[in-house]
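Annotated sample (chain length 115).
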Amino acid sequence: MKNTNIDSLIEVNNIGDEDFESLVMQSDKLSVIDFWADWCQPCHMLAPTIQALAEDYADQIFVGKMDIEANPITPHRYEIRSIPTLLLFKDGKLVERLTGVRPKEVIESRINVHL
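Output written by the structure step:
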């Protein structure tokens, strides 16, 4: 059984345009980046799934969230037209794009393809 103590939760990394290259593109792990905005209700619906993935895959993947309002450069570069959008990066390359709220099992299946 998982420990659900709030102090033990893995923190999802908030990333910005300025650290995207070093944290995502140069990572030696598969990176899962959630592009979101505070005003986006579907983004808030997806947030618990992103948190669960960060906890379940803590040693295997890098999980980050990027606020598209505060960081316009990276979303523009990757043509984020709708949110939430999840982008998966491996070895500095975009390998997967998932748009909209998806069940955890669907996201996990796509993560597992790239591990």
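Annotation: Confidence is low (pLDDT under 50) at residues 1-7.
Annotation: The chain has four helices and five strands.
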